[in-house]
Structures are given as structure tokens and as C-alpha cells.
Specification:
Distance between the termini: 15 Å
Structural class: alpha/beta
Strand order of the largest sheet: 1-4-3-2-11-6-7-8-10
Helix content: 10-25%
Strand content: 25-35%
Shape: globular
Number of helices: 4
Order of helices and strands: HHEEEEEEHEEEEHE
């Protein structure tokens, strides 16, 4: 189920598909956009404007993060506050691959819900984990198995520095079980068309703006629950 390496968006066109499929070895704060979910209460233009504001460009100390093309994002995957009954502690992260969502428990029956991409068939897994470490603009290293299939990835065998083209993106949460890294992450993606799809080899991806929101509110040791698909 797990393999070595850390995944995300491709560093070059020839590697893009492979990186996407191997990740996880891979629109501010909890914002309610309920108007987007109420048919007849907002026009398509209003919904797009609200999402565009939420997913606009983000200044960053290292690399300026571009805006998301929200026209390519299904409105149901826009970040919002929803009712979500749970006995889990505030801050707990729940990954729901069957519905392509990630929830952060906020307490009092509420949660922040993010649209996500999830593992593709054959790489789905479930159980409890926790955030063992976290990183901004992390280095990505391709696994041996990937290099065997894609020799051009060998140039990154020593590690690909963080950046806009790095597969792990701007922020990464590394998932652990029993003191060991699972080789799965919750990572950043700049590809809105990947949200709502099974595309990775075990990881879960959020749009960069969503991942920054989750990352800033998630300390190391946070509990993560991966639901069955």
C-alpha cells in the first residue's frame, strides 16, 4: 500500500502524470460560503465572485502563489463551514475519500469542509493516523520505483527543492502511525481539476489556499482519521 517518496504536481510535462498518480506516497479562516450551496439564493456569477475572492493570489515569503481558476472548480468543493456531528476533539482532521472531502472539526457540531483529491483505486486506505511533522515548501524525493519507470526523474534523486513546481506544493502535513511515517501526506495542489477525483497513490490533496488554511491551524500530533471509501 505504501511506497517510498513524496508526491504532488509534476516538475515537468513529461513527469506530470506520474507525479500526480504517485502523490501521497504520496473558495482565510473557516469561511462559510453557504450561499453557494443554496440553489436559487445566488447567481452563478455571484458564486464565482465569492470563490474567486477566497481562492485569489496569496503573497508568500518564498514564492507568490497564483489565484485558482475557479471556473474549473466544482462549486460543491469550495471551502465552507458545514454541520458535521462528531465526538472527535476540535482540530481533528477527517478524510472522506468516498465524497472527496476533508473536514476539520470546529466543535459545536460544525466543521470546515475542504474539497480534495484522494487516492485512486488500488491505493485507498483507512484508519487512524496523526500529523508527525509539517513543512512549508518541502523538498520532494522520487521513490526508487518511480525512477525505474520514469528514468527522467533520476535528476531529482537527491531531492527537488521546494517551489511552485514541486509535487508537494506550498504546505505539507506528513501522516504517521505508531511513530513511523506512512509515506502519505496531505499536500498542496494548484490544479482545481484534480479536486473531486481519485488521482494519487495514497495522499490527499487540497488546493493551496485551502491547504494553507488547514496547515496554519494544525499542530503536530493532530489526529487524522481516514474513512473507508
Amino acid at each position: 500500500m505504501m511506497m517510498e517518496g513524496e508526491m504532488g504536481d509534476a516538475a515537468s510535462p513529461s513527469l506530470r502524470s506520474e507525479f500526480l498518480n504517485r502523490r501521497s506516497f504520496l473558495f482565510g479562516s473557516a469561511v462559510s460560503l453557504g450561499a453557494l450551496g443554496l440553489a436559487g439564493c445566488a447567481t452563478d456569477d455571484a458564486a464565482l465572485m465569492a470563490a474567486a475572492k477566497l481562492y485569489g493570489p496569496v503573497p508568500d515569503k518564498k514564492f507568490p502563489i497564483p489565484a485558482v481558476d475557479v471556473a474549473k472548480l466544482d462549486p460543491k468543493y469550495v471551502r465552507r463551514t458545514v454541520r458535521y456531528d462528531s465526538k472527535e476533539a476540535t482540530g481533528t482532521i477527517i478524510i472522506d475519500p468516498a465524497n472527496y472531502y476533508v473536514y476539520r472539526i470546529e466543535g459545536e457540531g460544525n466543521a470546515t469542509r475542504y474539497g480534495a483529491n484522494v487516492p485512486r483505486k488500488g491505493f485507498l486506505w483507512n484508519g487512524d493516523a496523526y500529523v508527525g511533522r509539517k513543512a512549508e515548501w518541502a523538498t520532494w524525493t522520487p521513490p526508487k520505483e518511480m525512477i525505474q519507470r520514469q528514468p527522467e526523474a533520476r535528476k531529482y534523486a537527491g531531492g527537488m527543492p521546494g517551489g511552485l513546481d514541486n509535487p508537494l506544493g506550498a504546505r505539507t502535513l506528513y501522516l504517521y502511525q505508531n511513530g513511523k511515517y506512512t509515506v502519505c501526506t496531505i499536500y498542496s495542489t494548484s490544479d482545481p481539476e484534480s479536486i473531486g477525483r481519485g488521482v494519487t497513490s495514497g495522499c490527499t490533496g487540497l488546493l493551496t489556499q485551502d491547504m494553507i488554511d488547514l496547515y496554519e491551524r494544525t499542530p503536530v500530533k493532530t489526529k487524522v482519521i481516514l474513512l473507508p471509501a
